[in-house]
Amino acid sequence: MVEVRRTVVVKLDMDDSDATLLHETVDEYLWACNYVVQDAWQDDYKPTSKTKLHDRTYSDVREQTRLQANLVQSARNKASEAIKGVVARWKRGKKASQPHFTTPSVRYDKRSATFHDDRVSLSTVNGRIEAEYVLPPEEDNPHTTYLRDDECEVTGATLQYRDAADTFFLHIGTKADVESEIPDQGDAENSTVLGVDLGIEQIAVTSTGQFWSGNYLNHRRREYERVRGDLQRTGTESAHRTIERMGDRETRWVKDYLHRISKAIVQEAVAHGCDRIAFEELTDIRDRMPGAKKFHAWAFRRLYDYTAYKAEAEGIDATQVDPAYTSTRCSKCGTTLDENRPSQAKFCCQKCGYEVNADYNAAKNIGFRLLRAGQKSPHGGAISHLALKSGTLNVNGGYSPATQ
Asked: Can you list the domains of the chain with their CATH numbers?
């Protein structure tokens, strides 16, 4: 059995007075998050402990807002996580500024919200309101598979307001124990990892030689930017509304595109009997990747998250590994030189002469990094093989052809 977690997005239907209460709740919740951060920023040593932050801010936030106690705690927890993220970057020698919350959202747990099959009861700044779910027909969709399934347990939700649609949505978290669709792999000698490299030109490349081009994604992104620029220069109210609608459409399109790639990556792992999928560590990826923008970093995180939860349903674990030298190390002989990568697309080992696509070489090295770390397979035993185009390599470099 494996625990599968899914998030189901549901549109909410409510009257105008209840919507107004939710807007007020969002505003005071964001104020509470920012108050906790501002209080922590008074000290040279930034407190990250939830207990310390609670002792310092809880009474003040309760006095200065109409938030119910559980929402005050939720805001504190959200602030604590953001502070921890900044402190962690500082410890790695990276720059990071004081967090500031502006996105209209609220985290609800099962104390501040009550979830039913067709509606939800949400705590607000003035009691509770009930909002109906706007659900699709009962067919093959996430709402039927997870939300309507009695075997799935709701764990909590995040309320979000989409300005372009002028509508509240609830991102409902669910979990369930399901039978793994991956057959028992037996002993550690059959444990296998799939390496995945991320990039701008090739958004994803696997150690089995599968490529997913980023050209279409980058082209569509540039087109959206061009149109937005034209509308911004127009400067009318109508142009501003069009920009907001475009942003919502673009986000939906990109998410769908990334979902399709993540599904294909998991299918590749299943086809090669992999127990794990190894990605490069995403922290500070913009600093390491020439030409990467904030959009690309967001897309990579989404792709990893989508792959992770799809893989989990197949009994496969997705993880991240240290990417140091994976782009300049020869996956054949191990020689690591900057000169091994004369261009973004080409890898040529200066010692053994191995020539191959640079992203494919990096994908193999990412997989090797997990092998050498000796991390455990979900089926028991250390991971011992790297999945390639036509077979596998063990941790010592021994090749085994694919079974026909």
From this structure: 2-178 (no CATH), 188-215+250-401 (3.30.420.10)
